[in-house]
Amino acid sequence: MNRPANIDVLLQPRPPSPLQEIRDDGFERHGVRLLLKRDDLVHPELPGNKWRKLAPNLRAAVAGGHDGLVTFGGAYSNHLRATAAAGRLLGLRTVGIVRGDELAGRPLNDSLARCAADGMRLHFVSRSEYRRKAEPQGLARLVDAAGAGGAYVVPEGGSNALALHGCAELGRELRGAADVVAVACGTGGTLAGLAAGLAPEQRALGVPVLAGGFLTAEIRSLQASAFGGPAGAWTLAEDFHHGGYARVPAELEAFAAAFGSRHGLPVERIYVAKLLWALTELTAAGAFPRGTVLAAVVTGRP
After folding, report:
1. pTM for the whole thing?
2. Is 111 designated active site?
3. Of the listed 77, 111, 126, 128, which one is catalytic?
4. Rounded distance, CA 196 to CA 166, Å?
């Protein structure tokens, strides 16, 4: 198949994404300015960090002559949906290796149904098999069992050295715009790259949406692979995951709905709602000195 080496010709992204100031009493009464980095507007089907992380990998896949992509995710993975959409737009076959073999005989949820509609072939594996993707031999067995030999392998969440360089561009777009730049974290790749792109006087703040406390080591490992060592200043705000990935308790749902209604903003629940909740709570607790300019990266839409 004849595809242009420059994927921007087909995908037509729209960086840099706009920066929007939000007047919200939860921040203003503490002397904190809140800006939203509307990365959800950078591409209609590959919004936010999905574009930032996938674009360098898509370029590598096309340049390497691969005719397909294989990647990994859970039942509600935004990354799987974005990869499926990218494959459709670029004419690449896609295979998604999905965590949880118990899902194989069930009707697809909306997220996986969207993947299938975009042409992604779904291969369900047990959770123990899925964990073996971190081992070279285990990864090879998973890819072979999925019938994806020869496809370009994109890691879970899209987080690898190439992706970090893509996310560093997000940081460069925010230089001079804020004191603290905050982003929700799944696999940690966006935060790792973002921190590297910010100016020395800025700090990146990550809000993990999964329980477990594993991200610190993962971010250090990702930065070592991408940049040769630590890059930029970053910290994590734990304990705002609301019970784990894809869990949206009633209080978080109500918060997201109210924030969206006040500001005319569609708030994505799995990542962005937890980010905005965390920043509201941290601001109220005095975590940011008066006069702080805080930028929150909106990585996706509902």
Report:
1. 0.90
2. no
3. 77
4. 11
